[in-house]
Amino acid sequence: MPRVVVDVMPKPEILDPQGKAVQGALPRLGFTGVTDVRQGKRFELEIAGEVTEAVLADVHRMAETLLSNPVIENFTVHVEQDA
Amino acid sequence: MPRVVVDVMPKPEILDPQGKAVQGALPRLGFTGVTDVRQGKRFELEIAGEVTEAVLADVHRMAETLLSNPVIENFTVHVEQDA
């Protein structure tokens, strides 16, 4: 069944307290060399039938209206073929 | 600067109430054809310097110990080259 993935990330100009918390924890756990961490969301949508242009347009509308907050978040949509 | 992405998703056998909530909302918003939704997390790590095998091994350990809960979540690590 085809799978469409929507990645939602905070916009670069938006503060990301979750990402900052992770970034702050890394050195305490002994990890160095990470200069920035951003935390976002990943949605995996299983699609019934083929992923047509119309389906992708629908997923874009879902991402805009339900999965992301366009004021503070960007999203990307891509198709992952799955077993 | 190279970017390493860690995707964290609930294991298939684990209930995913957030995903189910999204899935339940889609028909009410007029979207059909989505048979399942899983919601997870996406972490974007900016790395200082090159992404070597040692860095990727470090990121795997971060993912295991800090970014995911291995009891209920799976994770994948991949590199995204960025400007």
From TrEMBL, chains A, B:
It is found in: Cytoplasm. Pathway: Purine metabolism; IMP biosynthesis via de novo pathway; 5-amino-1-(5-phospho-D-ribosyl)imidazole from N(2)-formyl-N(1)-(5-phospho-D-ribosyl)glycinamide: step 1/2. This is Phosphoribosylformylglycinamidine synthase subunit PurS. It comes from Nocardioides luti. NCBIfam families: phosphoribosylformylglycinamidine synthase subunit PurS (TIGR00302), PRK05974.1 (NF004630). GO terms for biological process: 'de novo' IMP biosynthetic process. Its EC number is 6.3.5.3. Belongs to the PurS family.
